[in-house]
Write a sequence for this structure.
């Protein structure tokens, strides 16, 4: 025991003797110890102690760097000094160190701000009010951006967009990122797109500058940098943000671009559900464009995001119609309503519905038990009824599609067609919109038999069989089963001179009386495209203020034929 104690004491004495040498020059430690005869245990003691000391030195050095970086101003206002040296073809980068870093020739050198093109115009302003931050150059160092997104989970991709030039971007949060290839238009894209730049280390470690630094100087864009990069380059940029972490620097950069960005109200999420029926697609755009609808509160938020759920039909024709409307919504509608409101998504399955919904609009409600339960059991669900429902006539959560009701909306916003419709001066084209079996074609057959008119043609725009009473009149009648939503509406716009209702009390009583009185979409199409209409007198009165022109008839076929005579005469006289 005494021998072990002496050995341990000698170890301690040896370590104490080595401390002064270790602080000055670690190499002397080895020379001092090599002149002695020591056991393996003493060598292990020395090596272990040296390793601890080197680790301690590293932590001290990192601490000093962090403290000096933390003392940087959040934003440095100074002249952009990164420029081409006078009389030299080299781009000189002045740094805070005693040595200057010399880059390649300024001629065609993308690392020199003076070599970057100047476009002599104002940058293109984006119309979406989103902030666009850019990462320039091939990099895989996206961790700080991912940390920022985790710290701000409520930021909408409609508010903040990241653009990466030369990389695919991170795998996380892909809907926030847009990848750009490096091309000859790189600098012009950065000039137009970027509100600010995030300076990340590049894959090519031989490159002196963080990605985007040169563009930030050349185009006067604010930049967020790692603290150690900010120490070197802060004198060359007017607006540089370098906080204790890059994620905090990104936050400060965004506040510089838009001071009130983080006080924005969250997007208002409106869910429009039409999954129970495989039609009524022509109504949905109006529900978005005219929001807030009567009885449905306004979100009072900066942005409105609409998710539509549509019907997944087993019928190929109807399924294709749904696919066509989805394509229209995600392309033409999305471009049409940029800014404050836009289409977020079009879904098929109820399992895809958003987790957070502020208001839900049922686009196709009927006075049945299931739909009534929607209104009774939910605080944020609203119904658009397609038939009367006396129980909810004055409900603050119910809406109709006809001026016959106190609370109504006329959804008449349909696709725009910029071209002027072709006019056939020799033929008057009459259109019946809807399923043929729901229209009284006996009226048309009587008119054709008794009047034998010249220069008329009839089109049925809607899926369904040809009415038997039109047999023998094939030369004057066509039926269209057009599934493509946009093509269908284009036909209404181009083909129809007049829209026919073909509704009478004896054949379609549900449109006139009863507790579940139906509403026809033909009137909405006629209003949307400003077409004259021939309609039953009992249905016409509420729409007179909205239709461009209207001729009425009663239940008799002769009354209908007289209304047709007046319509044809007026069109032929007025051209």
């Amino acid at each position: 025991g005494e021998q072990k104690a002496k050995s341990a004491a000698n170890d301690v004495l040896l370590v104490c003797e080595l401390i002064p040498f270790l602080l000055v020059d670690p190499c002397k430690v080895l020379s001092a110890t090599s002149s002695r005869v020591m056991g393996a245990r003493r060598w292990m003691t020395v090596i272990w102690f040296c390793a601890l000391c080197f680790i301690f030195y590293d932590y001290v050095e990192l601490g000093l760097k962090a403290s000096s970086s933390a003392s940087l101003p959040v934003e440095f206002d100074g002249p952009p000094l990164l420029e081409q040296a006078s009389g030299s073809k080299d781009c000189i980068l002045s740094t805070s160190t005693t040595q200057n870093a010399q880059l390649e020739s300024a001629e065609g050198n993308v690392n020199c701000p003076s070599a970057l093109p100047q476009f002599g115009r104002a940058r293109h302003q984006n119309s979406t009010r989103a902030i666009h931050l850019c990462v320039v150059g091939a990099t895989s160092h996206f961790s700080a951006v991912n940390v920022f997104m985790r710290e701000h989970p409520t930021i909408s991709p409609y508010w903040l967009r990241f653009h990466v030039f030369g990389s695919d971007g991170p795998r996380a949060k892909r809907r926030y990122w847009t990848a750009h290839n490096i091309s000859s238009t790189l600098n012009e894209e950065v000039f137009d797109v970027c509100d600010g730049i995030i300076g990340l280390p590049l894959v090519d470690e031989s490159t002196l500058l963080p990605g985007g630094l040169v563009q930030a100087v050349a185009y006067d864009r604010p930049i967020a940098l790692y603290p150690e990069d900010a120490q070197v380059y802060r004198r060359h940029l007017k607006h540089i943000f370098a906080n204790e972490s890059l994620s905090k620097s990104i936050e400060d950069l965004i506040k510089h671009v838009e001071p009130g960005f983080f006080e924005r109200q969250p997007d208002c999420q409106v869910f429009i559900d039409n999954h129970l029926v495989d039609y009524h697609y022509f109504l949905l755009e109006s529900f978005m464009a005219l929001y807030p609808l009567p009885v449905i509160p306004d979100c009072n938020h900066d942005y409105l995001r609409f998710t539509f759920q549509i019907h997944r039909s087993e019928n190929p024709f109807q399924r294709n119609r749904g696919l066509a409307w989805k394509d229209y919504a995600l392309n033409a509608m999305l471009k049409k309503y940029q800014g404050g409101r836009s289409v977020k998504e079009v879904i098929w399955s109820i399992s895809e519905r958003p987790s957070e919904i502020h208001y839900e609009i049922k686009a196709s409600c009927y006075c049945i038990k299931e739909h009534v339960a929607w209104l009774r059991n939910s605080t944020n669900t609203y119904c658009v009824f397609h038939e009367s429902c006396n129980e909810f006539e004055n409900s603050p959560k119910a809406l109709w599609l006809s001026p016959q009701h106190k609370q109504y909306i006329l959804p008449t916003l349909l696709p725009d067609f910029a071209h002027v419709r072709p006019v056939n001066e020799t033929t008057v084209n009459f259109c019946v919109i809807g399923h043929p079996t729901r229209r009284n074609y006996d009226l048309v057959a009587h008119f054709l038999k008794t009047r034998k008119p010249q220069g008329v043609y009839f089109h049925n725009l809607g899926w369904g069989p040809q009415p038997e009473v039109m047999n023998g009149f094939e030369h004057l009648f066509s039926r269209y089963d057009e599934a493509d939503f946009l093509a269908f509406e284009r036909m209404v716009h181009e083909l129809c001179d007049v829209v026919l209702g073909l509704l009478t009390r004896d054949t379609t009583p549900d449109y006139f009386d009863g507790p579940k009185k139906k509403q026809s979409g033909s009137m909405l199409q006629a209003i949307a495209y400003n077409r004259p209409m021939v309609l039953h007198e009992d249905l016409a009165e509420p729409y007179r203020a909205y239709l461009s022109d209207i001729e009425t008839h009663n239940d008799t076929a002769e009354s209908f034929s007289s209304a047709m005579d007046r319509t044809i005469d007026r069109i032929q006289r007025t051209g």
